[in-house]
Each structure stands twice: as structure tokens, then as C-alpha cells.
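Lecture 7, part B: from sequences to assemblies.

Below are the input chains for today's worked example.
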Amino acid sequence: MSSAPIRNEIRFLLNGREVTVRDVAPDATLLDWLRLDRSMRGTKEGCAEGDCGACTVLVGKLTAGGLVYESVNACIRFLGSLDGCHVVTIEHVQPVGGDLHPVQKAMIDFHGSQCGFCTPGFVMSLYGLWMKDANPSDATIEKALQGNLCRCTGYEAIMRAARAISDYGKGASDPLAVERAAVIEKLTKLRDGARVEVGSGKARLVVPADVDDFAAVLEAEPKATIVAGSTDVGLWVTKHMRDISPVVFIGHLEGLRRISEKDGVITIGAGVTYTEAFDLLSQRIPALGELINRIGGEQVRNMGTIGGNIANGSPIGDTPPPFIALGATLTLRKGAERRTIPLEEFFIAYGKQDRQPGEFVEAVHVPVPAKDSRFAVYKISKRRDEDITAALGAFHLTLAADGTVAQIRIAYGGMAATPKRAAAVEAVLTGKPWTEVTVEAALEAYAQDFTPLTDMRASAEYRMLAARNLLRRFFAETQGGSEPIQVSRHQAA
Amino acid sequence: MNKHSDLKAARIVGGVHSDQRHDSAHKHVAGTAVYIDDMPEPAGTLHAGLGLSTVAHGILKSVDLSSVRAAPGVVDVLTYEDVPGENDISPSGMHDDPVLAEGKVQFHGQPIFCVIAETREQARRAARLAKIEYEELDPIVHIWGLDPEKDKQVTTPLTLKRGDAAAAIAASPRRVKGSMKLGGQDHFYLEGQVALAVPGEDDEILVYSSTQGPSETQHMVAHALGVPSHAVTIEVRRMGGGFGGKETQANQCAAIAAIAAKKFKRAVKIRLDRDEDMTATGKRHDFVIDYEVGFDEEGHILGVDYMFALNAGFSADLSGPVGDRALFHCDNAYFYPAVHAKSAPLYTNTVSNTAFRGFGGPQGMVGCERVIEEVAFAVGKDPLEIRKLNFYDAMGVAGERNVTPYHQKVEDCIIQRIVAELEESADYAGRRRAIAEFNAKNRFIKRGIALTPVKFGISFTKTESNQAGALVHVYSDGSVHMNHGGTEMGQGLHLKVAQVVAEEFQIDLDRVKITATTTAKVPNTSPTAASSGADLNGMAAQNAARQIRKRLTDFAADRYQIPADQVVFLPNRVRVGNQEISFNDLVKQAYIARVQLSAAGHYKTPKIHWDRAKGRGHAFYYYAYGAACSEVSVDTLTGEYVVERTDILHDVGRSLNRAIDIGQVEGGFVQGMGWLTTEELVWDEKGRLRTHAPSTYKIPLASDRPKVFNVALTDWSEAYEPTIHRSKAVGEPPLPLGISVLQALSDAVASVADHKVCPRLDAPATPERVLMAIERLRAETADK
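Predicted structure of the full complex, as C-alpha cells:
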């Protein structure tokens, strides 16, 4: 058993003050707590599923790189996961006794609000962006706003405001800049190395002290709901009203939040968020960087973890197919025991994964493709950004010296009950010359690999057609030339 | 704070024709603007949660609510039996819209019961515990496959005809017949439906409702409670978006909250979860549009016949008038020498569809523009050429081509100039050539461009709705309190009306207080709809202000013994003969002299009349015009696309506030584009809406707006009729500018078959529909 001391309350900073919550349900959301318990009603509920951004707040946390603030969706963020964090709401943006913040001034002057209901969320997202990048490009602004819906303005006025923020000065009185040292000190003090346990029975939550403590907790309570980013589990509560107790929050565990490369393999801890993984992945495997930017909105990427994307076993998770195509492996841990399996073997059937009671996903290991190989991943969705995949294809090709296919690994999402390799297609292609004739001949084999469904995102017919065409696209892209093959919103950097 | 106004100013701050920021902008960005769910609840407030039907069509065999009642925090459960008055909130008077289902359910998601609990969470959880047995009946889920002549309709259809369309088509050198499916649209206002009811003494009740139609909500609540309207007060300071979705759809929540509040003598709040809101409240109507057109080799339309079948859902709601407005806009900006057009508001077992920005007009125009495309492909011309050939006569031209299908003469047509200017500024011809070159060189990506016009009729077709009231008080310190019947949903209505009042008194805008809309101050108001808000309420407020100004003028003339024409209202002051007195001082003097400083204003739109049975009349006071040119790139392997550029030139007459109007044009365009591209409502075969949240229903993002987006207003135009300061309505007319994107996608698709085949691209043109259209065209040309 872990020897961590036990604390029975959640402690965090809310705007300018420290709060302690003793009576917190495992499924209590930050948004409801703010609006109902604290009567702080500047933060709005638009959808209660992390898709509209009206509830955007900033959460500051101490990381290896210092104090970092990120936008999150308060509607699906559980209160229990905020232990040791700094929660910043719209009420705290305006400097104390001062004028409006540059973000707010720009939004007013450029007519960035109409009905105003989404506006606090936009202000918070733009605030989060401004702290990182005071002179963002349009592409950067659009990325920061992927998780914020506005139904009135058509966004043009908000974009004008966003471009102009830095014209309003550096925000010397920006509250988070002014308080920074004090906040770091307070957050450091809050770190007591304790395990947090609150409640009992159907209302129990645990915040383990560290990874070993987590392993111990899970062994003792194998049926506990593991919550990392809560971008999925949040909806179990807000939409399906499922009881999720006992809950173990793991998003804060430093031991799961490491991403590093060794011997050509990138190891991503299960608690690494999309945002945290972006830098290394986009640098080493650029196609994954582009893909990550199309997963959820900024708030979801700041919360959601790659480990969670894998562990929940969804057939439309975006990271498993490219990882499978790259030959990734997965490390699972139970207590002190670890095992490592090929990622594709983790997905057994719809809703069924190779994870034993008490076991958890610890890390995924992704080989960086060799220089002489080609790797691509293509996501198709109804709306380009912040949408769930209709079909996603990942391709990893190595050619032999004679131009034949030495090896090709192809995996799809959205085409079967699990992320799945196109084994028959791969078989047809392997050993053949990498030519249009070969590719066209391989298209037949898709029928052996996949029998997709029709649902609200796409028909079976479209999924099949698009899936095949993605192989055509991949082939075309391997042929070079200057002809555009995909539509793009922004010129590649 | 009593700010000192500038008494030497040449102009007031914030009069008409000046760019003013939204009056609540500061509160929006600070998070201090109060929406209904943000108001502090009265002590003891209860919360309501709905129990929704889980089948689309069925008889309620048994409704066992014992587990619901036993759930933690539950105070009671209401069913139709608890409705003290009429269990009906039908805005059409058809008695087909129950507050809570009685005996049967007619769509999946229909409210059957309502849980009243101590917390919203408890109410929502308890609502899931009901045990309801249905005798399921076959649902009608879609309108395709229905016969618009024979199948059940929810209300009387409309026919418009002028000339003998059948004969004209038969006699035409060329003819095309076709059909189009056009999807509906969820409003996706960011603030969902919400109401807070506070019981008063006797039969009184105050309901804070996020409603576009406070008077209608008042009448419905009174009807459901079985009390006179005078017992019910509805108040709304602002909505977090409306778009038509809170014209009638707010009534159900208001009625339920009011019934519960009266029953338990406690305040009751109901706020729908997003999924419930999307499942249980009405949307833009989806249509099937059948058309036949006769034309000559040049592309002149000679005769056209339309059937507009619309999915009304299970009840009439506003489907009759929505179908009417589709017919009113089946001409868009074009003259039809002979026309026959019919609506068919069809019954289905889906939610009852309702008003949505444009109110059927955009659907009429989409059908019309499909016809233009058909003619263009048939004669081998650019669709823009066909458009220009068929426009109504320009204003001032003494021609014959100026009569609409409803026999109204178009007197103010400026579409020629708008289109000509836009063609030039957007370099349509040059880009058309560049696109042809690009498409010839590229196999995978195809580009397309389209320039489409808009002509939108302004007035309610329900004549009595074309009136408005306002209440203006001038307090003895010279500050002004303004109230009117219109509601604020983000469109800047209150600001525009305040600018009108400031202008009348010649005082700075900050001297005019904007106040919440309430049925207790201005009665019998029309819903803020049909783009009419500023036109009607601006006039009514102007009328009220003028009454007071007249009294001040008469008072000053009398007091200072000068003719009334020597009393002149200057910025923040009044010149009385040879001296200038501050407005505040004059007001003070008038008060002391016992002059009435409050007035109720009223306005009714002149000229308009409409005989529905005959299909004739002067249905619209005037028209608003605009045009958009959009260019797209389409991936022919997947159907994915981006909007490369959109240029818009739009007519708002003499703008009251350009900043606000440009926001309406940009927002309207993007909303229209979303409707026709990524916003897809999907019902399964059991009648369940599968796209009931933003995770599955995709409205545009910042990254979906055109990469280049140029919006301009026609600075040279002014309303032909004496509207409020010669401005024009701006709420709805920009929405159909989004049709340019659908048509540009169609143009790109057509390029795969060398523009020989009309793509007949249905909407919403999701990547899937685009790819399937490409595949169809490729297959068709391969066969030849």
C-alpha cells in the first residue's frame, strides 16, 4: 500500500482566493459549482458536452515548464480534478479597479458580440491565446477558437478583434501577470503530496498522490472509473446521468504526463494531453500534428489525453489508426506488473478492450517513421474542425529499392467496430510495384476488410468510397508534383 | 451617474446613421449581462424537468410516474391533467399543440410530463424513471415519398398564380422538370429555452421568458392557466440568440413554469438541456421542391410551376405562413411571365417546425436558384447570365416585367446595380476564367464560383402584426426611459431604437435608458420577427418621442412667447427664440409647469394588404436587396471543400448603424451557408433525431467562414418608402446570401462533367453529398 498521507478535501485557487471544498461529489462539474454554489454566472452553459465553449474558463497548473494556463470546458470538467490548480473565470479578467482587459476592449470596439451569450467563452479562449501569443496569425486564432461556437456574428468581427488585441497595449495590469509569483507560491504550497479521498459509497472520489499510489488504488478498487481529461466521461454524467463512483482522477499525475523520444520511439504517458503531445509529435511526425489540430477544440485538446483516446476503445478515436499504422505498442500496468502489447491487439471488439480489472494504460510507444518511408493520415468529417470522424485512414509505406512495396500498414477508424487494419488491402499491395495500376487493383480488397455502418455522420456507401479514395490520395501524394491534392484553409507553413 | 452633455456640440453622440457599439457590449465581454438563468432565483425556487416521449407515434397506454415521484428531491409531477386552462399553445389557433401530451404522442421527444423538484439535477434524473407503455403506431418520418396533393396537411395550403403557367410551359421552346431536397436547420441559439415564473397574488404571474414574442407568450400562458391576459406579465431583457426559434417555441417552457409556479406557490424555473432543446423544439422546415420551367433558347423564363412541400411536423405552428413565404420568394429577384406555385404543409411525426430567420423565404429562393441553374445548363450559359436576363425591371424603368406571382408591383428594384457593382468589385469574369484554367489543369481539386442575388419582402404577411407600440418617459432631470415591444436577441434592436429616440430629442445616446421588454409597459405587441424590429418599433418610439417633443415645443413657445417654429432642438439643448436652454433645464421647467412628459407611441405599416384566398395583394411594404459572390475549392476524392472567398454587397437603405448592420450581414451569410453546407439534421427510421447536440450537428466555426470575406453595404441606397430614417430591415435578408456557396459548390461539381450536366446538388451539401454528386455526374458522362 501507498504511504501517502490522506486528505479529505479539494483545495484550489479560484480567481483571487483559495478555496477548500469538503463536500464534493465525484461527478460535480466545475460549471455547476461556479453557477450554483458560488453564484458566479458569467460563465455560461451552452451545450454541457464540451462542444460550444460558452463555459470556457482557464485552468492554471504547475508543470515542469512552470505555471501554464489553458482554456478548458467547465461543463465537463470535474471539480475533483482541480485539486492544486488555479481556476480563472470571466469575473477575473478585468484588472482589479481597472479598465477592461485588452481582449475585452478589442471585442467591444470590433463589435465581436451580438447576443453576448457565447462572449465570455470567446474572451476566455482569446485570453488564453493572448498569454501565449500576442500577435497570432489567422490560422492560430482560428485554432484557438475551434472550440467556441458563435451563432450571431459569423466570426468575422471576432477575428478582427482577435487580430487587434495587441494594439491595446501589453496589459501590464493583466491580473494573471500581476499575480503570477504569488499564484506560483500558493500552488506550490498546495502540493502536499497527499492522496485525496472524498465521500463514500456512491459518492466517492480519489485523487492519487502519484502513479504508484494510483496503481494501488486501482488494484484495490478495480471497478473505479478512471478519469483523465473527462472529455468523454464528462458526457456520461451530463448527458447520460450515469453513476461513475468511485472515480479516480489521474490527469494531474506527473508520472503519466511525460512524453519523450528514445531510439526512434516516442513514448507518450497516458496522461499526456493532445496539447502537450503536439510539439514533439508535430516536429517528429508532422502528419500527427495536423491531425491533433483537428481533434476537438482547443479546450478539449487541453483536457483530453491520448491515453484516454486509446483506453476508451472508441471505433472513431482519432489517434489509434495512425499509431497502429506506425506499429505502436501499448504498456498496461496492474499494481507493479507491466505488459506491453501491439496497440492493435488492445482493441478486441466494440466496447471491449484487452484491459484486465485493476489494470490501466500507462503509455503508448510510437515509432517515428523511417526517413525513407512515407506516412500520412487523413481525417474526413462533416465539418473540417472540431468534428468527430466519419472515416479516417492512416498509411505507412516503405518501398523497396526496385520500387515495389516492401511494407505497407494501413489502418482506419470509423470503418469497423474497432480501429482496424486493412489487412486484405495491405496483402494485395505488398510486393507489387507502387503504381496507379496496383492501387486501383487493391481497391476491391476493401470489401474484404470493411463493412462500414450508416449513421448520422456518413452513409456506409460514402465511407467505403471515401476510404478507397484516401488510398488514391495517398498514392497521388507519394508521386510528388505541384498539383494540389487536398483542399486547405491555410497555406502550409 | 449624471454625465454632463456637451452643450456646444454640432452633433449629438449616438444619433441615427452613426456606428455605435452594442449597448450591452461591455456587459457581454465582462460576463455581467444577465440572461434568465443568471438571475438570482427567488428563495424556494423549484426546478422543472421534462419527460419526453421515446417513440415517434403512439397511443399512451399507461403512464406510471410512481418512481418519478419517489425520486430524491421531487415535489410533484405534472401531466396534462394539471393544466388548469386549455392544454394548448397552438399559435395558429388550430388546437393542435398540447402543453403536455394527452392520450397520444406524435413525435419522438414530445413532452409528456414535467417533474418539479428542488434542483434541476434532481428533476432531470427523476424524469428518466418513468414507466410509459405505448401502443406504437407507424410514424411518418420524412416528407419525401409523401404526396403533396393527397397526404395529410396540417393547415390550408396556398396557391399563387399569374397567367397560365401550364400553357406557357407547354408552349416554351425548352422545358426542364426536376426536384430538389432541401434540409432543415436547428436554430442553435447559444442560450437554450428557459423560463422563470414567479407567482403573484390572486391570479397574477410574472414570467421571465427567453421569448421573441412576449405578447404571444403572455396570451399562451393565460390560455393555459385559464386566466385573463391582464393577470400575466412577460418580461425579457435579452435573449442569447433567437433566430425565430423563440417566436413560438418559448411558449411551452413559459406555460409549464407558470402552471407549476401557480400550483406550488413558489417560483419555478425550467431550462432545457441542449439535447432536449434540439429534440423537443421546432426547427427550420425541410422542403421537397418540385419544379417545371419553360424557357427560350436565350434563357428567358417563360413559365414556371412549383410545388413546395414542407415538413410541418406534427402540428401547424407557423407552417402555413412559412409555406406562404416560400411561395412569396419563389421568384427571388426574377420576373416570371407566367407562374403557378403551391405549398403543401405536410404532417409528419417529427417535431413541429417553426420560424427560422427567413421564414420559408430562403427555401423559396433556393428552389428558384435551382431553376435558374437548370435553365443555364440547358442553354449552355453561365447561370449569372440567366439571372441577369430574368431580373425584374429596375426601379424607374417603365416596363412590364415588374409584377410578382402575388400581383404586387415591384417598384424599388435595385438588383441590377447591386449585381453589376459586385460583379466588378469581385472580378467575377476574371475569376471565372482563372477557375476554368485551374480546373483544366488539376485532377483532384476543382473550383467553382457563383454570384447570386437576393430580394426579400419586408412585412409580416399577417397584416395585424404590422404594428408596434412604445413607451417613452422623460424624467425631470432630462434623462429618458425607453421601452418598446421589440425584443433584444443580439441584433442591436434596442440600440437602434434608442438612437432614434436620441435623434428625436437631440440628446446624446447615453441619456436614453434601454429597458427590458415587458407586456406591462407596451401591450399587444408583435413578435420580434420578419426583420421588422427596427422598422416597427423605431417608428413607434419616434412617434412617442415626437409627442413629448411637441409638448415641450408648445410649452417653450408659450413660456417664452415665441412662435413654435422658433423652438429648435439642437444637440443637448433647445434654441428658444434667441436663447439656448439645455434640454435638461427645459425639461425641468416643463415638469414644474405640469407638462406630461410621458407618451405611448404607436405605428402601423401603411399600404400593405393581402388576400390569401385570392393570392393577391400588396404583401410587402418594400424589398431589401443584396448579392453575394462565393468561390469554393472541392476535393473530388472526398467531397471536402473550403470557401475561398465571398464578396457581398447588401442593401440596408440608409443604415441606422452600419456597425450593427454589417454584423447582421456577416452573421446572416454564415448562418445561411451553414444551413446549406454542414448543418445536417438526421432522423432515423424510428423518427429519432440523431443530431441533437453540437457534437453531431455542425454549425460553422471561425475556420469555416470564407478565407477572404469582403462585406460592403450599398451606401447609395435608401428605402423607397418613408421607413424609419429611410433605413431598411436587415435581420433576414442576408441569410439567403449563403445560397452563393451552394451554387459555387454546384459549379465546382459541374466541372467534372465539363458543365454539361446540371449537378442537382441537394442541400445541405455535406462533403458526402458533394462527392456523391461528383460520382453521379462522372457516371452519367461516362455512359454517354
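Note for the exam: The mean pLDDT of chain A is 96. Keep this in mind when comparing with the next example.
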